[in-house]
Amino acid sequence: MADPDSRPQMKRNVALLALCQAAFNSSTGVVLSISALVGLALAPNASFATLPQALQWEATAVFSIPLALIMRKFGRKPGFIVGALFGSAGALVAAMAIFQQSFALYLTAIVLFGAYTISGQTYRFAAADVATERWRSIAISLVIGGGVVAAFIGPEIAKLTHHLTASWLGNDPFARAIEFICGPGIAAATAGAAGPNPPYQFASTFIVLAFIPLVLIAIVSIVQFPPKVEQKFDNTGRSLRAIAAQPSFIVAVLCAVIGWGVMVLMMAATPLAMVREYGHSFEQAATVAQWHMVGMFAPSFFTGWLIGRFGVLNILIAGLVLSTSAALIGMSGGTMGYFLAANICVGTGWNFLFVGSTALLTRVYRPEEKNKCQGLNDALVFQSVAAFSFSAGLLQNAVGWTTVCMVLIPFIVVVFIAVLWLKLTSRAAPAGQGQPGAAAAE
Questions:
Q1: Which of 182, 160, 50, 164 is nearest to 105 (CA)?
Q2: Selecting from 1.20.1250.20, 3.10.20.30, 3.40.50.300, 1.20.1290.10, what CATH number does the domain 7-162+201-223+240-441 have?
Q3: How many C-beta neighbours within 10 Å does residue 403 have?
Q4: Closest CA to 25 of 215, 232, 192
Q5: Confidence at 431, pLDDT banded by 50, 70, 90
Q6: Which pTM does this prediction carry?
């Protein structure tokens, strides 16, 4: 935990971590915009279009506990740097996969990107490390809010670069380098190519994407994390079974699962629905992804304050209401306006659920249990998110956008009941989390 007397240093560290989050989410914003369309182009069956996204979340879950152990042994900074290197490698392999038209190689690239993804999801916990107890929720919220920058950078990168591969291959040294790495004949395939979907579309995007994690490494290198102290505990704390049996842990995980699940399923299905089902352009789909990310991250600048003012459980309920509204809006039509409204709404719902569940989770473990509890939470959450993501392609291909939105509502209702039970059950929630204003008073 940060020294209470070092507020300027705390603010500097939180600001740098917010920039790290912005760099990370710029990468994921690009992948969010294009992954399903790349999957559709490379997959042997249209139903597998969102399999890469599902595999990314599966890899995120698999790497979550190993990364937690690495950070426990070596500290936050080395873990973030290693994760970023995986991100650069994954982007380059993805570009190779597009040049070679290999779905299997693209899946390999996404696995590497999964390791990068879980490292980026850990910035919120790093915010809790550098902040004092009083400012913890606000620090978490502000760091997640760094993704607002990414909302304008990530999709714009996708829009500006998705068609550039053919012109780049017109440069002889670049073409020779690509053909040396990926095989002969690649440059010839672009000769005289025209139309909205040129050969090797999005390969140039992934090449650009490979440089963003390097920017992240430069930023995270100057963050002043609390000195790594070899904490000696009498024991390692409670078992994972005992930790997971706590009502507050269950509710925190459920809210994170449904917040991520609803958001990922709708966002994974959106470009497929817009381009294939309703005839919108890729640029329109990227614009929807952009404003979806604004909905995800802009509220973070006040979500922490709202948690302190109204209580974390009330913010979780608000997030579930927003997620329900997004599904209902999505069911109402397929115009650009409906897609924009639904995706902004589900993004804001995700923010309330993600920030709120993270704040609630920090209250359920003891110091000696921190790393394994955070690792267990992320493993459970991203395993579930992988299932939601893969389901998006299957459902969109089989039954269409309206039914995709309809399927989400029962899941939201179940989690709403769980949060309401925790709120109304005496002493079930951690102190200061169940009543409005209590968190702020601590």
A1: 182
A2: 1.20.1250.20
A3: 12
A4: 215
A5: low
A6: 0.73
